[in-house]
Backbone:
């Protein structure tokens, strides 16, 4: 479906059965067409240098890209489709700026951090609250401040290294961290770290997604809406994504996020249109 006015129904953070998504890629595309999306981007978890159950395997990269190409052609008259990857900043060798990822024929790249190193082991911080608390005890000696600081320091290294279009779920660790320490977001050290982090993002000209994945279950966006005014103050371009793992969540929380951005004085979102990121006015009436 095409519209002759701007349409904020776009999503550039989505998974499918090539990684840990719960349905074939085409099911997501069909749902996006059904809901009148202007554009849809597929962004499986990129391969890591070791096996992980939640990522696309390197051996399947060619098949992944071929399937996106096939769908681009098959749905060309109905929707703009884009090839992306959600790439972990693992270390200096494996990150969005790596040659391997830069040479892939992608339309865009998401930079994310899911793993934090402790004594030579990578610990997943994007887990349920119980596993998070256990990992905090086992691998970080219950030092929540150190773990959260390591997370943002790693993200800042990712931002300085570059090679990606936007930061994925910018402060997601706080969702789990605040189950361990409910007032963590009010701590002066935390507020200072967040400011330093967003200032680094602004300085490097990266975009930030407003990730709505946990909005319906947990009532939060990543980054938290309490930072939207800081995003505006620093003139960081934003886009709204649902990080969908199921076709029925491709639009989840988008309207609420767009409204929250408007409330914070942000009236445009970035959308990949005609192959270029373009500021697009938030139009809730059209939505
Ligand atoms: Zn992620
Ligand atoms: Zn994701």
Residues:
């Amino acid at each position: 479906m095409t519209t002759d006015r701007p349409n904020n129904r776009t999503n550039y953070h989505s998974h499918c059965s090539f990684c840990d998504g719960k349905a074939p890629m085409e099911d997501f595309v069909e749902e996006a067409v059904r809901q009148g999306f202007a554009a849809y981007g597929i962004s499986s978890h990129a391969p890591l240098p070791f096996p992980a159950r939640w990522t696309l395997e390197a051996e399947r990269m060619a098949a992944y890209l071929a399937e996106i190409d096939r769908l681009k052609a098959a749905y060309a008259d109905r929707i703009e489709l884009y090839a992306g990857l959600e790439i972990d900043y693992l270390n200096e060798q494996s990150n969005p700026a790596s040659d391997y990822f830069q040479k892939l024929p992608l339309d865009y790249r998401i930079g994310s951090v899911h793993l934090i190193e402790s004594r030579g082991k990578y610990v997943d911080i994007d887990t349920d609250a119980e596993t998070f608390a256990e990992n905090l005890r086992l691998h970080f000696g219950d030092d929540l401040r150190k773990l959260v600081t390591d997370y943002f320091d790693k993200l800042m290294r990712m931002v300085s290294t570059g090679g990606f279009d936007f930061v994925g779920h910018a402060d997601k660790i706080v969702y789990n961290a605040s189950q361990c320490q409910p007032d963590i977001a009010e701590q002066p050290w935390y507020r200072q770290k967040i400011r330093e982090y967003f200032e680094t993002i602004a300085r490097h000209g990266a975009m930030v997604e407003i990730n709505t994945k946990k909005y319906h279950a947990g009532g939060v966006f990543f980054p938290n809406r309490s930072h939207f005014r800081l995003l505006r103050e620093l003139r960081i371009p934003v886009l709204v994504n649902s990080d969908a793992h199921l076709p029925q969540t491709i639009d989840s929380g988008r309207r609420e996020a767009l409204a929250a951005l408007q409330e914070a004085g942000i009236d445009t979102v970035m959308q990949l249109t005609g192959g270029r990121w373009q500021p697009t006015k938030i139009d809730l009436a059209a939505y």
In short: The first strand starts at residue 10 and ends at 11.
